[in-house]
């Protein structure tokens, strides 16, 4: 198993070969644009890593890793349209740089191209990858719909929120790892276990993202701290605070999350105070640890060396102690 930067470099070099110089330009240029915006490249790295874990050649998993990244970015293009988001990774979103119709159509093309990338594999591997991809893609859509539905609901439960982030974020992390196992011809038990490891780590990752959005360092976080508060998103922090606060403060939090302000400075400060004083901030950190520990426990079921298990744990630790 190699280091994370090793897999990142390998993937980025492969991504360069995917640059699309085709017509019409207004269909393909937005695809190149979103894929070149950067990001953590977490999912493709996990695909390559999982292939290595099961003694496969990571190079053989590059097409599957790219498919995961293309699909992920397709979902971002469409999410940005739904959220009317002006920026993605500090740059104009596709629908802002071009227009909404272009964003929809280029996103559709990316979904098709993600499937095409499996055509490089043998029929049995292709079938396994495509079956997992279809299941995961549909779950991501379900997660996105839950997220949209929650925007207009005031009775969202913690269980519902956890299901939403599992579908919207975590299942794709799990699938990324299982695809690496499929390419390496790992047995079904190991495939299922590495999927569970990735899925649980994905839930912890999203909870960590929620926490950093409120309490991250603005110098390292990479986006505006308090963005979820400004957008009145009912994250795990919000739901836990609502459950822990007394009636007066719970009503105050509810009121704050129905305000649309030009200057949100005081709103962010007060909401963060409520998150801390209620115990929600600590509860969220505990949940991150709990899901990470659950992921580590799954490693006991994998038929790989203890050294590789420790390397996977080290990767998880790095992910959960990140500041970006």
Question: What keyword list fits this structure?
Answer:
Farnesyl Diphosphate Synthase, 2 domains, two-stranded antiparallel ribbon
Could you characterize what this model shows?
The chain is mainly alpha-helical. The chain has two domains: 1-186, Farnesyl Diphosphate Synthase, CATH 1.10.600.10; 187-324, Farnesyl Diphosphate Synthase. It has 16 helices and two strands. The protein has helices at residues 4-16, 25-35, 42-53, 62-83, 94-97, 100-116, 123-150, 158-183, 188-215, 218-221, 227-230, 236-244, 247-256, 265-278, 280-298, 306-320; strands at 87-88, 91-92. It has a two-stranded antiparallel sheet with strand order 1-2. Helix 7 runs antiparallel to helix 8. The longest helix is centred in the middle third of the chain and has 28 residues, at 123-150. The relative contact order is 0.10. The mean pLDDT is 93.
Distance between the termini: 24 Å
Largest sheet properties: 2 strands, antiparallel
Q: What's the gyration radius in Å?
A: 20 Å
How many beta-strand segments? 2
How many domains comprise the coordinates? 2
Q: So, CATH architecture of the largest domain? A: Orthogonal Bundle
Tell me the CATH topology of the largest domain.
Farnesyl Diphosphate Synthase
The helix tally amounts to 16
Topology (elements, then pairings):
Elements: H1 4-16, H2 25-35, H3 42-53, H4 62-83, E1 87-88, E2 91-92, H5 94-97, H6 100-116, H7 123-150, H8 158-183, H9 188-215, H10 218-221, H11 227-230, H12 236-244, H13 247-256, H14 265-278, H15 280-298, H16 306-320
Helix pairs in contact: 1-3, 2-6, 3-4, 3-8, 4-6, 4-7, 4-8, 7-8, 8-9, 9-15, 12-13, 12-14, 12-15, 15-16
